[in-house]
Amino acid sequence: MTYNTSLHTVYNHYLTTYAPKTTTQYDTHKKSELRNIYHAIVKLNKESPLYILDSSNESRAFAVGLKENARALRNTIASLGGLDETEMLGKKSAYSSNPDIATASYIGGSTINGAAPSFNIEVTALASNQLNLGTFLSADEKADLAPGAYSFDISINDLNYEFQYNVRGGESNRDLQERLARLISNAEIGINADVFEDDKGRSSLRLVSTASGLKSGRDYIFQVSDETTSKLSGTVDYLGLNFMSRQPSNAKYLLNGEPRTASANHFTIGKVFDITLNGISSVEGETTQIGLKTDLDSLTENVNNLVHGYNSFVKAAAEYLDSHPRSKKLMNEMSHISRHYQTDLEQIGFSFDKSGQLAVNDDTFRDSILNDESRSRFTTIRDFTNSILRKTNQVSLNPMEYVDKRLVAYKNPGHNFATPYMTSNYSGMLFNSYC
Predict the structure, then answer these.
(1) Are 239 and 180 in contact (CB under 8 A)?
(2) Which listed residue, of 19, 321, 382, 409, carries a Cα 20 to 30 Å from 4's Cα?
(3) Are 287 and 121 in contact (CB under 8 A)?
């Protein structure tokens, strides 16, 4: 399959090289938020001097990685209740009495009318994906396909994809299988392909669907054929690509005794709980209870997640201290934020080490929150979190602030105008590394 737009290719290069992290619901924005970002960029560009930047591959990786790490920390904060100060760290947490059967997270609102919901789950079958295991062929032997242009079709999600390739003279079975595995996997149509080798030196092309479960009236997720393909046929029969060694199936479980099914092992219940099935109940009647933790337990979990996200960001920035000295500027800024709140935070169970990492003692934290005289100190945590949030927004908006650069000239005071200079330097790195 061929992608014709360079922008699409550059975007894929960005994602696979610099940003392996997955996107979340917190990466979407309202029009008003995008408008605010636009105005902030305009102001930044208007006031920015002219620089000569270090354009090395290392600097590009540093700038893009810094932006992505800032985004990750921001999303961590957003996931703990929201970005509004009144809701920050207020997310409720779910529990599972038997995580081997199922785990849960709370996705409902911040307020609950009536008693906290709870239910029991018994799992009788897990959802499975489709596995096609090709014919085992001698890996080093020459492929028994005449040289030429071949193609085959994969039908998935009511769409049909044609894959074209050339068989080269003298090509081995293993080389052909590996080439087709890359072709199918890189197409990103919902199928992962790899080459499986047995203890006899034979190899097989294996196709696995990323999705699981079955649609009504079907017993497959994808089909492979070359009966009506545009190029030479023979690939499917020779490699055995249409042999289904594992049929997909739905998950089966009992919710408070009532039988239910799901096409995947991950689903939601009542727009309140996000459920992941992990295993089958070992005996009939074995269940796991899903419910909400107490407010104190939820707050403790949120604070620990905040500490983990903060430490991950600081650790990632510290990795560049030797190769990018200006990263020390960011470390100093983060340290300044921590020191500003250090005294109050230490009184409720936080501790700081020399590298800037945070830790929290759960018992001390719980006791301090339960103490009426110390309850007001919880506002310190929110103020600290809000300060971190503002810093991540600044870093995400202008990671070039921490890249090695040489000042060339200031703009004419009083006669400044908006230019795309700073933002074009950041986005230009992605294109320069590819063109």
Answers:
(1) yes
(2) 19
(3) yes
**pLDDT tens track for 275-328:** 999 999 999 999 999 999 988 898 899 999 999 999 999 998 888 888 887 888
Q: First and final CA of the chain: distance in angstroms?
A: 21
Q: Specify the DSSP class assigned to residue 219.
A: S
Residue written as tokens 């290719």? 9
Which residue, chain included where needed, has tokens 């590819």?
A: 434
Render pLDDT for 117-169 as a digit per residue (tens, 0 to 9).
889 999 999 999 999 999 999 999 999 999 999 999 999 988 999 999 999 88
The secondary element (H helix, E strand) that includes residue 289 is: strand 288-292
Contact indicator for 276, 242 with CB cutoff of 8 Å: no
**CA-based torsion, 355, 356, 360, 364: positive or negative:** positive
Structure tokens at 205: 């092309």
Q: Is there a contact between 155 and 226 (Cβ–Cβ < 8 Å)? A: no
- Is 128 buried (19+), middle (13-18) or exposed (0-12) by CB count in 10 A? middle
The whole model's pTM is what?
0.71
Residue 369 φ/ψ, nearest 5 degrees: -70, -35
Q: What's the one-letter identity of residue 229?
A: T
Contact, 221 vs 156, CB < 8 A?
Answer: yes
Q: Which two tokens stand for residue 345?
A: 């935070």
**Of 167, 165, 221, 215, which Cα lies nearest the Cα of 192?**
221
